[in-house]
Amino acid sequence: MKRLALCLMLLAAPALAVQPDEILNDPALEARARDISSGLRCLVCRNESIDESNADLARDLRLLVRERLVAGDSDVEVVDFVVDRYGEYVLLRPTATGSNLILWVAGPAMLVAGMGIAAVYLRRRERAATNAADLTEAERTRLAEILKD
Fold this sequence. Notes:
The chain is mostly helical. The protein has six helices and no strands.
């Protein structure tokens, strides 16, 4: 039973879509290419990296990354080239600068604002409940009479 579970887990592991004819001869360049492609989004599959995608466009991007590395570009230059060509959407981990900063800050800011609004609401509700408890004896008697009916 344990062997069957192990086999099923190995089959469920993500398969890399890099074809043998794409692999570079230099292991250092190939490692850099894999590192870069794991951070670039497939524009067809959306939430897969180009390293994991079997789409034709992902293959073209993998080849483009390898061509740029063979040409002597640094990792940053390769990523910048792809971003200039396809836009920032191609990055799986977008930068936290410029207009993206609004998106990075908006979620936590809305959470803090929501917590503040909830705290104010609960505090006012608690005060209203304590004010109702400060009834005079005549008011308590009248309230008891009303509640009996």
